[in-house]
């Protein structure tokens, strides 16, 4: 089996796992859906990364040993510290600074 075949097999298994999770999620009340929205999004990101980044054959084979590789990866991701809030803060502050700068430049143009 080629590397591409292995990766496709992992991708399809994770997709099927996500579809089952999605079906369950859509059967939940709205507040429960919102409670799990972040998890759904991260799981989608994990699946995307299966093709975006290259895992070694050994890594793919290791993940394929699990019945639920997507849930396993999500559980590990959920335990890690990320820079998500720092990234959000940086974008928030940069956007505010851009608006301030644009208003400043507009005021200078109008003052001429």
What can you see in these coordinates?
By secondary structure, the protein is mostly helical. Helix 3 crosses helix 5.
Radius of gyration: 21 Å
| Number of domain units | 2
Assembly form of the protein: single chain
Uncertain residue segments:
none
Distance between the termini: 70 Å
Structural category is mainly alpha
The biggest sheet amounts to:
none
What's the β-strand tally?
0
H-E order: HHHHHH
Q: Which whole number gives the mean pLDDT? A: 94
Strand content: under 5%
Discrete helix count: 6
**Secondary structure: helix percent:** over 70%
List the helices and strands and how they pair.
Blueprint lengths: L2 H24 L3 H6 L1 H16 L4 H8 L4 H11 L4 H27 L2
Keywords:
112 residues, mainly alpha
Nutshell version of this structure?
By secondary structure, this protein is mostly helical.
């Amino acid at each position: 089996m080629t590397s591409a075949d292995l990766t496709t097999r992992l991708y399809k298994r994770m997709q099927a796992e996500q579809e089952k999770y999605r079906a369950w999620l859509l059967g939940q009340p709205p507040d429960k859906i919102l409670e799990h929205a972040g998890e759904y999004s991260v799981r989608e990101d994990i699946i995307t990364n299966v093709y975006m980044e290259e895992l070694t054959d050994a890594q793919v084979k290791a993940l394929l040993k699990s019945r639920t590789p997507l849930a396993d990866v999500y559980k590990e991701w959920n335990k890690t510290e990320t820079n998500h809030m720092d990234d959000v803060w940086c974008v928030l502050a940069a956007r505010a600074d851009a608006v301030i700068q644009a208003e400043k430049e507009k005021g200078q143009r109008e003052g001429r």
